[in-house]
Amino acid sequence: MAPASAPLSINLAESFEHLSHAPISEAVFQITGRVPSAWDEKPTVENLKSHLPDYPLHQSLRSIQQKVNLSPSQPPTQSVDLGWNGAVFRNLPGTQVANFHRDSFSFSRLAPYENWKSFSSEAIRLYTFHLEQSQLPLVQRIGLRFVNQFDAPAGRFDIGDFFTQSLSLPQQELPLTRALFFHQDTFMVPGHDYGVTITRTLQPEMPTPAGPAAPKLILDIDVFTTEPSPADPVQIRARLEEMRWLKNKMFFGSLTPATIESFR
């Protein structure tokens, strides 16, 4: 068994460069925890609507189960409504999305991402509405996920020109062009109840009505808690600052200086 690592020092005083053209396509804050109180559609949605006039687009979500019937006397498939399980609210541009479910809450900011202060403040503000409605006694998991996406060369290219960590070498026998790759690592943070999953992948050229879209390199960083936490928003906000530090260290440590330069 490998020896235990020394606890990692999380330095919240450390500053990180602001990138004018940061490649963030989506930032997500997520809370998972089972609601112990009543979770009825009409009062819940009406209460959320009263708190969220700045999120005028909303939709109720229901769970549907498809049953396959083998008997020739019955329809081949049958849909069973399992009931209401939550609602999604969007702002008018559609760049901010809040999902309220019985067992989870999430807030997503789509591109263009503005800054950490506005994102984290809005995430906590919306979470307090979920907490007011749900009366969560405990949070099972807190997640902070940033999906970064940027253009990749259309032809053959060296992945080491973009990512600092090496991937397995492609085959060398034929002059082939790499069409896709997917590499994922999950790390535990010594001395803290945090984990980090980093995914690096290539999204191939995609057809669109305006013509083919360029292939994209994706760096997906997901920081999460590994132990239950108090549901108090103040304590969750403090955790988010630590999780942001981990996210930033992973982001700047995963990309080459030339790649980071292209985002300035």
Strand runs, count = 9
Shape: globular
Main pleated sheet = 9 strands, antiparallel
- Average pLDDT taken over every residue: 88
| Stretches with pLDDT under 50, minimum 5 residues | none
> What is the terminal separation in angstroms?
43 Å
Radius of gyration: 22 Å
Structural class: alpha+beta
Model description:
This protein is an alpha+beta fold. It has one domain. Helix content is 22%, strand content 33%. The chain has four helices and nine strands. It has helices spanning 41-51, 116-134, 233-254, 257-261; strands at 24-32, 57-68, 77-90, 96-101, 104-110, 141-151, 182-188, 194-203, 216-225. The protein has a nine-stranded antiparallel sheet with strand order 2-3-4-5-1-6-9-8-7, with helices on one face. Strand 2 (57-68) and strand 3 form a beta hairpin. It starts with 23 loop residues before the first strand and ends with a helix. The model has no long low-confidence stretch (mean pLDDT 88).
Features:
22% helix, alpha+beta
